[in-house]
Specification:
Three copies of one chain form a homotrimer.
Chain A: H1 14-33, E1 42-47, H2 52-65, E2 68-72, H3 85-95, E3 98-103, H4 108-115, E4 120-125, H5 131-145, E5 152-156, H6 164-174, E6 178-182, H7 191-201, E7 206-208, E8 218-221, H8 232-241, E9 257-259, H9 280-300
Parallel strand pairs in A: 1-2, 1-3, 3-4, 5-6, 5-8, 6-7, 8-9
Chain lengths: 303, 303, 303
């Protein structure tokens, strides 16, 4: 069952995730009707790390549900006066009905949940856990492909450092997608994660060290930072080889979709935005109904 | 017809402007009844240049209509991570129903409109285009004088650099006001603009190099920056001559009104605020119903 | 009677304060029902001094009433362009129905009230006046102890510099509490204030220079800054003696409650948060219904 807090995607069972999908789909219908589902509830956003897009997505979701939003801006706040994070959480817990928190320190959101009476939703936790991102990624695949099971998903980029890719792999395993991991040599995903997802869900991944889009239904792209390479020439070469250009898509299925968590820099050239394959802006937009579902469920929780 | 975006006052025909006036007047009546006209719509404000007053005016207008607001704060945003403006617009376009944007680069708001599916309203574009300012200026004259045609309007100050004065002149020409341009020598309005407005609307302006309020119905004042003069003594002298003091108003009509886009510094002394002639704070307040009208019309646009 | 502005607790008569208490209690009931009492009103927050907690408390109160909020962020505002505070107030007065203002300069909020047509509520004025803090402090005592008259309240800490303690003493005098002032030598409350409250309400205070919790119903604690002492050893010793540890509570009444205006640093150890005596987070939460009452009354004011 869905608990008080949403800290990690791994806290969720498959039926919880399916419930969120169903709710998110319902939310999209509600958005068209303009009906507000919630009355007189306050959602507090506490972003101790800049992430404008995620924060605005949560705020939009809260407002479209009918909630009010208060935002704890970090600059100039009482934290500067030496107040502990615990006290800040407990005070905000006294004002709001749901807290959405992003914090650079791993584990801090879990701790916040333990200290608050109201539900805490993780808006990103040290780059480690970002459960609503995984939910909206999976929801986008489901919405675009009408299923996740058996869909051929390529995860592309620096899979070693892009830690949210681990949650996505876990989610894809949960729903039985066919997964190909495409990473430059040295930037492969941690074998421990692959092993864990295999043991848990029986997922067997295919691993490639170069782009090969043939057969792919979904290309999920993340950035490769040049700083990861010792040799600048090597860096430039690899980044170029992993860039999602029109040329790189030769041989792709007609209905291949390209996803990206955004912000993107140059791993996908701007010209690709007009491609019928591009779905990353739709993916970002799907964050709103997914987060509406998450907030709506959290508001059901009784202290 | 009123289009998808409102980028420049020059995109509007006279009947569009008249429609906004009628709507704004209706909005003022609605404000008194407290009725909210809009349900479950989100307006995003993206101010890439500080302008608290304009932003709050738009936010107030959106909220009084019944919309929710999300604000894309520039500091700490993804733009710092290297995201393109285009991507930011496309993501916000996925969250909100209308975008209100201010940006230091001329043309950027027009471009944003082309990239977004939802309407984009210009909240000030490189000091060049600021269409809702022109609308609220004209609306204030209409409200105070019951007409614009034949009203004797003096535009006073540094007409060379105050670029929003150009839009106002265009608007006054459109509605057939009598216009006098009052600027210090060297800071006169661009003759090309005067010529254009004459050719388009037949407006003949009178030009003065010193204040002469006799016969004026409206004194529309803007600042003269001392930095525009090479000689500090000359600067001080001219600024003093153009200051709107009680003495400067000797011989003025009883119902002369003084307008100013605000913020004002010392071109109008604070003592003038109590004068029966002062209308600049009412003018600022008129921004709310005018922007309500603009947002309301934008929300009618169907993708 | 409750006036247009709420600048100082001393502007209020006992029956005004009792009215706010009654309203705040009603607001708590309304919060449970989820009913919004106000439609289409805008509350502006102008915090010229950082105070996240107070600002969020006011914003939450406004939103839970059904108001919309606009926030005048100080950084990047027109004040930087040289606009006078008076002009800023007058413009905001044209947008909003109630202004909530915090400002480092004593007297500035009173002045703002004189310049605005709409009510101005003081959110903290140079550390001097903070009337809603005093209201919520008294409301918390009333709620916890069912009365204020005869309740044994210890005000503990640096009573010389904690100027809001003066308003609280005044309020406790007004309601006939038994007051003990507990301050380190040299940091005692100004005798002039004690004299004034005695003359006005007949309050006789007991003064102690060390903690002695026996008989106390309420321990109201504020911080002692080490910078107040010349001798660092002395500072450390005094701060330790005034720390509210479990040991310091030996001999306390079972139903003693500990209050604190927050933020707290180390004058109350975090372990105390779990104590049945601790009430400071409830106290912070009570700020919401109290400020709802204050905003609600302000909105009744007719220009």
């Amino acid at each position: 069952m869905i608990g008080k807090d949403l800290v990690s995607f791994r806290d969720l069972e498959k039926k919880d995730v399916e419930h969120y999908f169903k709710m998110a789909s319902q939310m999209e219908k509600n958005l068209k009707s303009g009906k507000k589902l919630v009355k007189n509830k306050v959602v507090a956003t506490l972003f101790f790390e800049a992430s404008t897009r995620t924060k605005l997505s949560f705020q939009t979701a809260a407002e479209r549900l009918g909630c009010n939003v208060i935002d704890f801006g970090v600059a100039g706040s009482s934290l500067e006066k030496g107040e502990s994070l615990a006290d800040t959480i407990k005070i905000l817990d006294g004002y709001a009905d749901v807290l959405v928190m992003r914090h650079p320190l791993e584990g801090s959101v879990r701790l916040a949940g333990e200290m608050s009476k109201h539900p805490v939703i993780n808006g990103g936790d040290g780059g480690n856990q970002h459960p609503t991102q995984t939910l909206l990624d999976l929801y986008t695949i489901l919405k675009e492909k009408k299923k996740i099971k058996g869909v051929n998903v390529h995860l592309v980029g620096d899979l070693k450092h892009a830690r949210t890719m681990r949650s996505l792999l876990y989610g894809l395993g949960m729903f039985g997608a066919d997964v190909t991991l495409v990473a430059p040599r040295g930037l492969e995903m941690d074998p421990g994660v692959i092993k864990e997802v295999h043991e848990r869900f029986g997922l067997k991944v295919r691993e490639l060290s170069a782009l090969d889009v043939r057969g792919a239904d979904v290309l999920y792209v993340c950035r490769i930072q040049k700083e990861r390479f010792l040799d600048p020439y090597e860096a430039q070469k690899v980044v170029a080889e992993f860039r999602i250009t029109e040329d790189a898509l030769v041989g792709a299925k007609d209905d291949l979709i390209i996803m990206h968590p955004l912000p993107k820099i140059d791993e996908i050239p701007a010209s690709m935005d007009e491609s019928p394959h591009a779905r990353y802006f739709e993916q970002a937009r799907n964050g709103v109904p997914v987060r509406m579902a998450v907030i709506y469920e959290a508001l059901k929780y009784k202290k």
